[in-house]
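Case study.
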Amino acid sequence: MSWGRILNYWLAIVCIVFLTQCSEARTETPTDQVNMGASASLEAQQNNQTLLKQGEHLVLIAGCHDCHTPKKMTDKGPVNDMSRALSGHPANMPPPDVDRAEMEKKGLAVTQTLTSWVGPWGISYSSNLTSDKTGIGNWTEKNFFLAIREGKHKGMENGRMLLPPMPWEMIANMTDEELRAVFAYLKSTKPINNVVPAAQPPVSAGPDK
Ligand code: HEC
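After joint prediction, the assembly is written out as follows.
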C-alpha cells in the first residue's frame, strides 16, 4: 500500500468520525436540554413531595389534629373526623354550657371535643388550618412564622396574642425547616370552608387572688 492511499484511508476515517460526532452533537444538544429540564422539574417535584410528607408527619406527631380537627361520636367515644381534618371548631357548634364566672373564679378550663375551650382567658376556639380562605389559604409563610414563633393571631404583626391552650411556645421550637414543611403541608390540605367563632373575653375579672 502506498503512503498516499494510507493517508487517504486515514483522512476518510477522520472525516467519518468528525461527521458522526458533529451530527451526534447536533442531535444530542436539544434532547439533552429537554432531558435535563425534565429531570430538574422531576427533582423539584420529588423535593416538594418529601417536604409535604415531612409536614404531614410533623402535624400528626405534634398533635395538631387533637385540637384542630372536629370530632365525631363513635361507640368508643369521640374520634377525629378526618373528613373535616384540621378545619377547626365547627361554626355551628356552641361552646360548653358551663357557669363561666365560676370556672374563671376557680381557674378551671373546660372543653368539649378539644375544639372549644372555656377558661380563665374567656373562650377560645381552635382555628381552621386548612388551605381554604377561611383557614390559612391567604397566609404567607411569614404569617405562619409570626403566629408560631411570636404567638400572633392570624400571623399579623399587630395581632392579639394567641390564647391557651394553643401551645405555640412549644411548637416554636421546631426548626425553620420543620415549620416550613408544616406550612407547606397545611397549604396543600383539602380546603374546608368553616368560619370559626371569634374568641371571647372572660366574663369576670379573673381568678381571686
Ligand atoms: C391543645 C390544643 C392545640 C394544639 C395541640 C394545637 N393547637 Fe393550634 N390553636 C389552638 C387554639 C385553641 C387556637 C386558637 C387560639 C386563639 O384564638 O387565640 C389555635 C390557633 C392556632 C393558630 C393561629 C391561627 C390564627 O388564625 O391565628 C395556628 C397557626 C395553629 N394553631 C397551628 C397549630 C399547629 C400547626 C399545631 C400542631 C403543630 C397546633 N396548632 C396544635 C389549639 C391547639
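Observations recorded in class. The pocket of heme C is lined by residues 59, 62-64, 66-68, 117, 124, 126-127, 129, 147, 153-154, 162-163, 165-167, 171, 182, 199 (CB under 6 Å). Residues 69 and 86 are 4 Å apart (CA to CA). We will return to this complex in the next lecture.
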